Amino acid sequence: MQKPSTRELFDYWNRLRGARTAPGRREIDPTSIRTALGNAFILQLNSDGEYDFRLAGSHLCSAYARELKDRSFSRLWHQRDRDAIDTLIRAVTEDNAVALVTFQGTTAVGTRVSIETILLPLRHNGSADARILGAMTAIEEPYWFGVQPVIEQRITGLRLIWPDETGASDLGGLRVAANGGRDQAPQPRAERQAAIVEAPIASQFHGRAARRYAHLAVIDGGRN
Fold first, then answer.
1. What is the largest CA-CA distance in the chain?
2. Given pLDDT bands bounded at 50, 70 and 90, which one contains residue 2?
3. Number of structural domains found in the chain
4. Are 176 and 159 a contacting pair, CB within 8 Å?
5. Distance from C-alpha of 142 to C-alpha of 57, rounded to nearest angstrom
6. What's the mean per-residue pLDDT of the chain?
7. Residue 123 included in any domain
8. pLDDT score of 173
9. 62, 206, 208, 223: which is deepest, by most CB within 10 A?
10. Which H/E stretch holds residue 8?
11. Angle, nearest 10°, between helix axes 187-196 and 82-95?
């Protein structure tokens, strides 16, 4: 997690959930995440099975130069990336994973910005798939931010963090996984990883072991 607002939201969510896989929607107190609030959002499942913004921070809305409330989160992504995003969302809502995504946003005049996104499971009225808590933060905010809206976004990297029942990891009861191998996770997680993309090729990303899937980089995590 590169940005303080991302880490703040994750740490807050992690404290709230305790030994559970996810906290409840009504437990979220905006005053407890003041630093992250402008970049934070809550998604809700719509009747088409996609996710819309129920709430979105003002700084996040500035990136798109429009109010995001009730707009589609799923449709923000480039058509080629929607299957990957849908798979990540299912990992969050069905398997209670935490998803970290970096993407490159492009404006109408070709300027670009890298943005870090986190998606966190959230329970609402007993359901694990109706709400998602998240944040989007520019890694290095350009001078034109808020004036030139992002109109296209492509994923550049992703990670999944799975709840760890042993609590032995250094991420507060979570363990990072990216390869979804059968020896590391139950079958649904392996299927979730395999569904994202195909044909892995070994590579390095910021000095860490990574695998390439088309234009995506899945980073292997763990205690180190």
1. 49
2. confident
3. 1
4. yes
5. 18
6. 77
7. yes
8. 45
9. 62
10. helix 4-17
11. 160
Which tokens go with 58? Answer: 């003002």
Distance CA 213, CA 85 (A): 14
CATH of the domain at 70: 3.30.450.20
Contacts of 56 (CB under 8 A, 6+ apart): 40, 41, 67, 68, 69
Tens digit of pLDDT for each residue in 196-223? 433 233 333 334 444 443 444 444 444 3
Please tell me the pTM assigned to this model. Answer: 0.76
Residue type for position 187: Q
Q: Does residue 17 sit within a domain?
A: yes
Average confidence (pLDDT) over 144-172: 74
Whose CA is closest to 10, among 161, 180, 169, 165? 161
- Domain-located, residue 198: yes
Q: Are 174 and 185 in contact (CB under 8 A)?
A: no
For residue 48, the enclosing domain spans 4-219
Q: Which two tokens stand for residue 178?
A: 């990216």
Helix (H) or strand (E) holding 145: none
CA dist., res. 99 & res. 117, Å (int): 8
The torsion region of residue 5 among left (phi > 0), alpha (psi -120 to 50) and beta comes to alpha
Span 139-155, pLDDT tens digits: 998 999 889 999 999 99
Residue by residue, DSSP assigns 9-60 as HHHHHHHHHTTSSS-BGGG--GGGGHHHHTTEEEEEE-TTS-EEEEEE-HHH
Query: How many C-beta atoms surround the C-beta of residue 109 within 10 A?
Result: 8
The answer to the question of residue 13 being in a domain is: yes
